[in-house]
Design brief:
8 strands; alpha+beta
C-alpha cells in the first residue's frame, strides 16, 4: 500500500495497491465488465477540494467525511474535479487492519464492483503510507 504524489500541476494523490496505481486496477476491472466509459479516473487533486485531515479522511473518520462517514473517494475524474467522476469505497477500520471494499461509481449506480477487492492493509503500514504522502505535500519552509 502506498499513496504516491504525482508531479502534475497541481499534484495528484494516487493510491497504489501492490505497486499498481488504483486507476489501472479499476480501469482493467471496468473494461472486463464491459462498462462504458471505462476508467476516466485520476488521483485526487487536493488543491481542488478540501478533504480535511487526510490521516482521518483515509480512515473514513474525517470531519465532514466525503461522501459520508465510513466511505471515501479514492480517485477523482481525470478532469481534476473529484465530484465529476469519483471512485467511492467503504473503509473498514479495525485495530490491526484497514480494508477497502464496497467500491462504487456513484454516477453509475447499476455498475457492480463485486469482485473488485476487497483490499486489506496492515493498519500501521497504511497509516504510515498516508503520513508519508502528507509530508510530501506539505510546503517546505
Amino acid at each position: 500500500m502506498r499513496f504516491t504524489v504525482l508531479p502534475t500541476t497541481p499534484p495528484q494523490l494516487m493510491p497504489e495497491v501492490n505497486g499498481v496505481p488504483l486507476v489501472d486496477l479499476v480501469a482493467g476491472f471496468e473494461t472486463g465488465r464491459g462498462y462504458r466509459p471505462t476508467g476516466g479516473y485520476a488521483g485526487l487533486v487536493l488543491d481542488h477540494f478540501d478533504f480535511g485531515d487526510l490521516s482521518r479522511y483515509f480512515l473514513g473518520l474525517g470531519d465532514g467525511q466525503w461522501p459520508r462517514p465510513g466511505r471515501a473517494w479514492l480517485l477523482g475524474c481525470d478532469c481534476g474535479e473529484v465530484g465529476c467522476w469519483p471512485l467511492e469505497v467503504a473503509i473498514d477500520v479495525e485495530s490491526a487492519r484497514v480494508g477497502w471494499s464496497g467500491f462504487a461509481q456513484p454516477h453509475r449506480p447499476a455498475w457492480d464492483y463485486t469482485g473488485f477487492g476487497p483490499f486489506v492493509f496492515v493498519r500501521g503500514q497504511y497509516e504510515r503510507a498516508v503520513s508519508a504522502a502528507v509530508a510530501t505535500l506539505e510546503p517546505k519552509s
